[in-house]
Amino acid sequence: MVTDGMTTSTSPARGHALAVPNLLTYGRILAVPALVACFYAEGYWSNWLALAIFLAASITDFLDGYLARAWHQQSALGRMLDPIADKLLVAASLMMLVSAGTIGGWSLLAAVIILCREVLVSGLREFLAELRVSVPVTTLAKWKTTLQMVAIGFLLAGPAGDAIVPGVSLVGLSLLWISAILTLYTGWDYFRAGIRHAMEE
């Protein structure tokens, strides 16, 4: 860029950091404490506001990746922060729902499966990254993430949602179990790749 006869340059790293897809990812991370605050706040509308925040954050999960590809703004920072933002959002939501008793009984197992898989995959990704090995995200894994978000959305509606449309919580728990099964299946791809490369080292 030329200003008053002087040439200045914008740092590529700074440009990537302030790209719209990355700003959406930052927003998703910042939405987590807002979601928690609304969920535990008193009042009828607080739960609906928590649901609205969660839905908005979930939409950014689709938008940041789509815009990064469409606008050619993919970056290492975005690739690092995107899965972190997803895990924070899902983990915080599941823990809130467990503490509120919305997820209980055998459904706790589904939540534990999802959380354990996220921890395991994070470790495997770090290990494989050191070996410069990339495990592409499969279509099934994307469906798994979508189902998780939809399930949590139904569960966040909870009793308030059941009062309007009976069975909302049941639908949420059913979808949570389906996403837990997909979580096990898709997690196996990472585990298999990690074991194979670990044995080669």
From TrEMBL:
<dbReference type="InterPro" id="IPR048254">
    <property type="entry name" value="CDP_ALCOHOL_P_TRANSF_CS"/>
</dbReference>
<keyword id="KW-1208">Phospholipid metabolism</keyword>
<keyword id="KW-0472">Membrane</keyword>
<keyword id="KW-1133">Transmembrane helix</keyword>
<dbReference type="GO" id="GO:0046474">
    <property type="term" value="P:glycerophospholipid biosynthetic process"/>
</dbReference>
<protein>
    <recommendedName>
        <fullName>CDP-diacylglycerol--glycerol-3-phosphate 3-phosphatidyltransferase</fullName>
        <ecNumber>2.7.8.5</ecNumber>
    </recommendedName>
</protein>
<keyword id="KW-0812">Transmembrane</keyword>
<dbReference type="InterPro" id="IPR043130">
    <property type="entry name" value="CDP-OH_PTrfase_TM_dom"/>
</dbReference>
<dbReference type="InterPro" id="IPR004570">
    <property type="entry name" value="Phosphatidylglycerol_P_synth"/>
</dbReference>
<keyword id="KW-0443">Lipid metabolism</keyword>
<feature type="transmembrane region" description="Helical">
    <location>
        <begin position="163"/>
        <end position="188"/>
    </location>
</feature>
<dbReference type="InterPro" id="IPR050324">
    <property type="entry name" value="CDP-alcohol_PTase-I"/>
</dbReference>
<comment type="pathway">
    <text>Phospholipid metabolism; phosphatidylglycerol biosynthesis; phosphatidylglycerol from CDP-diacylglycerol: step 1/2.</text>
</comment>
<dbReference type="GO" id="GO:0008444">
    <property type="term" value="F:CDP-diacylglycerol-glycerol-3-phosphate 3-phosphatidyltransferase activity"/>
</dbReference>
<comment type="similarity">
    <text>Belongs to the CDP-alcohol phosphatidyltransferase class-I family.</text>
</comment>
<dbReference type="GO" id="GO:0016020">
    <property type="term" value="C:membrane"/>
</dbReference>
<comment type="pathway">
    <text>Lipid metabolism.</text>
</comment>
<dbReference type="InterPro" id="IPR000462">
    <property type="entry name" value="CDP-OH_P_trans"/>
</dbReference>
<keyword id="KW-0444">Lipid biosynthesis</keyword>
<feature type="transmembrane region" description="Helical">
    <location>
        <begin position="88"/>
        <end position="115"/>
    </location>
</feature>
<keyword id="KW-0808">Transferase</keyword>
<dbReference type="Pfam" id="PF01066">
    <property type="entry name" value="CDP-OH_P_transf"/>
</dbReference>
<feature type="transmembrane region" description="Helical">
    <location>
        <begin position="48"/>
        <end position="67"/>
    </location>
</feature>
<keyword id="KW-0594">Phospholipid biosynthesis</keyword>
